[in-house]
Fold these 2 entries.
Entry 1:
Amino acid sequence: MTNQTDDQSSQNPSLDNDENLDWAKQAYEKLKRQQEEQKLEQQILIEKTLPKKSTEIISSENNQINSLEETSSFSDDVPVTNTSSLENLSNEFIEEPILGDFDDTFTWSAKILEAQGKKLDNISLDEINWLSRLQKGLEKTRKGFVTDLLEKFGDDPLTPETVDDLETLLLRSDAGVNATDQIINALRTRLNEEVLDSKEGLRFLKEQLCQIVDKPIENSELNELAPKRNRLNIWLLVGVNGVGKTTTLGKLANLALKSGFSTLIAAADTFRAAAVEQVKVWGDRSGVPVISNNTPNADPASIVFDAIGAAKSKNVELLLVDTAGRLQNKNNLMEELSKVRKIIDRLAPEANVESLLVLDATQGQNGLSQAMAFSKSAELTGVVITKLDGSSRGGGAFAVASQTNLPIRFIGAGEGIRDLRPFNSFEFVEALLANK
Ligand SMILES: Nc1nc2c(ncn2[C@@H]2O[C@H](COP(=O)(O)OP(=O)(O)O)[C@@H](O)[C@H]2O)c(=O)[nH]1
Ligand SMILES: [Mg+2]
């Protein structure tokens, strides 16, 4: 994945050219063939394994930790080598994607991959499905934003009035005052210098939007967040109740395992008994072991203590820590997070620690105040934005990036195990402004 600030759409005419569907057609044919082959393979596998007892197929936790193939970073290309049980294959949350029709959404997704220089040999159905979901998910934000915008842009050159309208639309999509000002000022300056036709205006807008979300990523000097190989990485998932921390953790566990990282989960949200159970379900789904303590209100720091011990003894590369989003009061919550941080710093000073704030896109700019509240005790290093599949406030991503300087690392658009991806500004902005 790359974060692209340069002019993708004009570098590659295929994004603008509806006639040129060749690549998309070839991609569709390729994926169709691939799916048929996979079906056949699965059929053979089922026939082979059916006479055996299902317990023989269940792989042990140790197996999962020790038998993982090494790959360079998060990738789609490594198949999941272990599934915890055959029953799980029918679980709606981990269902394999199915190739849909060759429709506008497919061709849009294919064009986005093509524009980023993806080769036909390397594309996967997962990627196409993800882009389709992201594009559909951002529909609500788009309806209140782009549809109006495109109508206002029309076919004529941009006018100062159009720019004023754009300002309103950006604010309405929850992009925030800072980001909106930056974009509008850039547009006005450009408009003072030359006449902008609507196409160039839109391209310039996309470029500005990308720059806002890319800036914190560039400042962090880390283009894409992935665990470092052969050492302990500890990722804390923090955020208020219900934003999607546990779900994100489950998806990350799956992504990490698929990419060949030995992974472990610490169930450190002990505030609700159900929270531990929920983490265990995700552990099962993704095939990643979970360190937990079933005692009600067990000390989260002690669970993290145990988990670090287990991680070290098993050479785990990624320890994912689920945390509580609500305690008796906010101070308790922040104290608890500080305590967890201290344990990590003391027990694993060599570890690569990421503290990821999970934000719910449907809450728009509220994410900003949440970021402020968590930034001190959790020493935040990045953001995950969830629920982009149903938000009308997708513009909140720009507010968070421009005002907190925290890089957006992953985005989630659905409740399924595959519905999370590393953040890619080009894909995000194109999905937001897609006119189909
Ligand atoms: N539609 C949608 N729902 C999500 C997403 N992420 C999480 N959820 C749902 O949000 C609810 C709260 O998620 P959970 O992970 O328990 O939040 P937590 O309290 O922060 O751990 C659950 O019903 C999840 O299924 C997402 O990207 N899209
Ligand atoms: Mg939770």
Entry 2:
Amino acid sequence: MPKSQPPASPVNAADHAADVAPAPWRLCEAEGWIFDLDNTLYPAAINLYSQIDAHMQAYIAAYLGLEPTEARVVQKRYFHEYGTSLCGLMECHGMDPAPFLARVHDIDLSVLDADPLLERALAALPGRKVVFTNASVAHAERVMARLGIGHHFDGVFDIVAAGYRPKPKPEGYAALVREHGIDPRRSVMVEDIARNLQPAAALGMTTVWVRSDSEIGRLGADDGYVDYVVDDLAAWLRGCAERRLD
Ligand SMILES: [Mg+2]
């Protein structure tokens, strides 16, 4: 790829991209970078979610006194109706979120290796970096420690900070921007679930979708608010950073 070329192409000529997205070689001038955590900062194939999913099912079964198969139905129904299973349990059963978050994220991270390519890409990329996750700060910090990238981030904005209003509910994005002093029009959001980029685009952020094969990840991918589609995040970020040196 010639150096004058952008590191990736806009996914489409959507109105949002035409109106808002800067030329890709200027992304290195972004003031803020907002990264989702799970399946964004590490590959979805690592499948940490299978452990979290199993813990959730067991927790719900014990909490509500259900058989595992019944608990799974509740878990998935609440996920679809409330954005996360946790929010459904809080709304419908007044559940205390803290023990739930601690238990479901108490997972084996030995499958996750350090990612020196991502670490170097983040090191080369100017701008403040924040993780925005529907999980917890503790989980994010453990995952980032395994990846060896935690020192590049200024903070983690989690489901607690969002007032238990999960992505893609817009209230969490507004709170994130306020709390971290982020100028959305000079910031980039990176996510593997395309629909979580819609509120970011509505605030004026440039949006980057880490392409997902999952049904939930692809939802909204063609709806016109995705500016860039990325398969190899570390390589793409490195490309952004190198534009600065042109
Ligand atoms: Mg994710």
